[in-house]
Amino acid sequence: MSAPEYAEGSAEAAFADGSRQRPLPHERVPGTAASSRGAVLVPAQPERAELAGVEGEPAAQAAGQVVVGRLAATVARLNEEVQAARAAADGRALIELAKGILIERLHCGPVQAARQLAELAEQSGVSDLELAADIINQAARDQVAQIALEFLQLSGNGTGEDDRASLAVRLRAAESGALAAGDTQAVAESLLQHALTPLGAAAVAVWSASPDGSLTLRGHAGFSDDEAERWRHVPPGVATVARRALTDRGLVHIASMSGHAPSIGYLDFPDGGRIALCAGTGGRISGVLEICWPQPLTEQPPAIHRQLEALADLCAHTLETRPAGDSHPPGASAPDGAATELIHLADGLHDPALVLTPHLDTEGRLADFRIHHTNSHFQDPSGRPRSALTGALLLQIYPLAVGSSDLFGQLERVYATGEPFRARRMTLPTLIDQVSLSTVADISVSRHGDSLLMIWRIEDETARLASILQHAQRLGRIGGFEEDLLTGDITWNGELFALYGRPPAAGPLSLHELAAHAHPDDAVAIGRFLRAVVHHGRSASVAFRLQRSDGVTRHIRVVAEPVTSSDGRLAALRGAYQDISSQHWTEVALAATRDQLAHTEQESAERNRLALQLQHAIMPPAHGPLEVSGLEVAVRYRPAESEAMVGGDWYDALVLPTGQVLLSVGDVAGHGIKAATGMVVLRNALRGLAMTGAGPAQLMSWLNNVVHHLTDHLTATAVCALYDPATRIMRWARAGHLPPVLVRGDQADTLPLTGGLLLGALADARYQEDQTQLQPGDTLLMYTDGLVERRDTAVEDSLTHLLRTAETPAGALGQRLDRLLTYSKSDTDDDTCLVGIQIPATTPE
């Protein structure tokens, strides 16, 4: 980063104490030229307004522009005066601090210190403000001074002392402004004005972090008040830039906001860069400092990062909730008043608990936690007394348990952010007598002031098994009992009282009273059960219907086993009841469902049988060759393999009174009895309509109206052709059906595709008609989609395979059709209808 340059022609600013200095690098002196970091607001010129009026604008409009221009100039002048006043105040704070250092070192009064500062500045050729910043740096030797030195070393050759001085002035001015500010809003404005604008930043936001993970905007600069109000509170879990910095607990650098989660001002700077870093001290995070650049941001050097970290520490000054007088040396555990309250709280808990306080290193960073207190329920896994733990460091006492399980990282996060942490059944390695053993514990950590309360509940195996047993009994609706035959004492658990619908105050019942609360029809089975257990001394079980006092009947299974004494006599009975009502009713419902399913299957099989008989009666699977008017016709019909898939494929070959031959193939959508009956309707309707002598297109139009108006929501595809034996001309039309295939010599191809919707889709549909001149030896193939349709293959590819198979020479027409069926690649298990028409090679005279 190059050192900021002063604006050319800048005048020296005068402070209230009479000292003079050059303005800060980011300041603008009224009347000077604009620098590369900003533009000077130029008021509108009255002359231009008057000229505008001369050029034709109304006089009132020109006068209004003059007033607006004067107001803009006044606002600009007032803003410059406010900025100059703020800079002067910050500068006076630095000079007063430097004068205090001279008073302490030279043992002189304030007047002599001010005179000495002015003389030293004049001899050094620098301003009073720069000299004051240099004196403070030498006396403080703090982070700001180190940052200025790092920046000077980073700049390299060609950089003079003015660069370090200007940086020190900016940082010290920002520091004095932040420390003197009454709220975080003033801190944000001071940081942007003095330290961030020279870095190219356009806006800054200061967030405070709450223990619940939410963020609150405490101060902002460079953003509008409306934008700040929209982002006043960010709920927990919202992935903003500040939230990411809080989660990572480090510096977050985003080159461009494009493609990232929105944050404050992302609409004003959509491609700008962002840097966010946590603000806090001693490992405790108070909030987040978020800085916005108007343009994409390149990777910044470490010196800039150090500068931003110093600014974040200034933000923590106003965000920190710890009292100002509560300070302690580095590394010492300094519990606040909340720690004392935590001790009383921990002593009142039934769970083992520890009160931890932070342990800081020499640089003020969090290094460990000190065990400040352990309550009376806490037991060390190694058997050490509580007195040996109090005052010790956590990592020293439990190095494995805290280090390897990332528990220490969670403690750091809770202390930094205030968000509680809870974990169930966390495995913690523990070192006992130099042997590493695993301990399972439930952990709960919360922050109270500067102290942490950690509840460390080590899981007891007996309690865990008892809990598992209780859950198993509750889920299985099992109630246990034990009856002492010698003393007469009977023990029931709570689940057994619930099964009986009996209040615990009424007391348990003996096993001998079981028949009195059961259905009378179950008395015999209960008697055999009691004889087996009591008299024969063996385990037994019985299922019965329990009639409760509230009128509810439950199906119960009881299992009991005898317990004998040392001399072999029966001493007690032990067992369990289980509510099997759900299982019983499930079995009843399942039996009814099986009966209904068998009946439904029988009805379905009967319907399929009737549909198949109807289909075979009208469309026999095999049809011998027909010779009609010098035309050889062969048919092959292959029904579906499954009777449940009976379809509506149909064909027809009929000689009309006009001498023409009607050839048709169709396919009704669906399967079953509805498709079979629909096929009959369409086939017969087409036969009747063909007697009118109409052409194929008109026949398809009429047939479409029949399907649309006279059937129950049927749809179908069809192809219809009329062949004239005298001229060998075939006219044809199609309704959503695959086109016929013409085999001529050793070539096979589909006829041109004519337009036409499937039957039943729309009323009064129009269909196109085409004609083909057939020649002796030609073979025409008409078929349904069951011949070519495949689930994983396009129709075009299946048609190509059909054409290649049809080109293969064959003897008779029937052999050609059989070959097409044999080499068909259809896999949909659908009906297939194939009609072959062949023109004899020599037509009889």
From TrEMBL:
Report keywords, A-Z: Hydrolase
Recall the GO molecular function terms of this protein's record: phosphatase activity; RNA binding
What sequence ranges are listed for the domain ANTAR?
75-136
Q: Which stretches are transmembrane?
A: none
Query: What InterPro entries does the entry give?
Result: ANTAR, Bact_Sigma-Reg, PAS-assoc_C, PAS-like_dom_sf, PAS_fold_3, PPM-type-like_dom_sf, PPM-type_phosphatase-like_dom, WH-like_DNA-bd_sf
Give every PAC domain span. 540-592
Q: Does the keyword Ubl conjugation apply?
A: no
Q: Enumerate the PROSITE patterns for this protein.
A: ANTAR, PAC
Q: Which residues form a coiled coil?
A: none
* Region feature (Disordered): 1-38
Check the record and name the PANTHER family matching this protein. Answer: STAGE II SPORULATION PROTEIN E, STAGE II SPORULATION PROTEIN E-RELATED
The protein's name is ANTAR domain-containing protein
Source organism: Streptomyces griseoluteus
State the organism's lineage: Bacteria, Bacillati, Actinomycetota, Actinomycetes, Kitasatosporales
